[in-house]
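Blinded run. Sample ID left blank on purpose so nobody reads anything into the name before looking at the predicted structure. Input follows.
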Amino acid sequence: MLRVGRRARARASKNYLGFPDGIGGTELAERSLRQARKFGAEIVIGTPLVSASSLTSPFCFELDHGPQVHCRCAVVATGVEYRQLEVEGVSRLADAGVYYGAAPSECHLYRDADVYVVGGGNSAGQTALNLSRFAHSVTMLVRGGSLAKSMSHYLIRRLETNDNITVRLNAELVAVEGKDCLEAIIVRNAAGEKERLRAAALFILIGGVPQTAPVAGILRRDGGGYLLTGRDLLTDGGQEGWPADREPYLLETSVPGIFAAGDVRHGSVERVASAVGDGAIALRLVHAYLSEC
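Blinded prediction complete.
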């Protein structure tokens, strides 16, 4: 499996089978790493893909500050990174009170403080619940008028029954303020009125961006940058854009022999269990591909 991204999102999962109390993304990743090494996998960390000099098997991949990698098959499982929020002051105060996601260490830093979460999806809801265990108050800023379309019902119920979580709908973050660290945020409501609020921390969870830039122009992507696989590569039932005589395998990308698994794939359901399932299926398909070569 060839990792071409620098880092992936690591968030807690409450719906991964076998962990009824949930498991953090970091812990799950560490366990997976230990397990992979037990099976003899060679792990290369922090070495992103620079280019691919061969688009037919055997493939040749150029790694940043590293040697070339030659292989007959590859699996792209790079996931997504947090979508950046283009708001005045956010980039300047990153990691100084403004965070993308919420690591456990960051949650502990703001015990008994007033913190804010930007976003209306499941990740934002889970982050608000985690922060509520430590913070004095947690306020969610949601641009839309409802959480129903973007968040699971069970999470909405938990937010509604949590005394120190407030959900502000039709609220848009327009600026953050602070000299060396976050001091306040500026929020605009549905009427266009702006309000300055004191804030100890701001956690941003507004979706993700697939880590496919290194394979742009190599593998076909959808409009959002996610990798097209399987029958999504076929146009109107035909095989335009697919170079082989056979149909592509379920998780095969536009280059025969290169597969995709997890959130980086177009149509992924964005759940830990499905990503793990993708990985298992992809490896099974790798064996099928190699057997026909």
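Unblinding after everyone has recorded impressions. Residues 102 and 284 are 35 Å apart (CA to CA).
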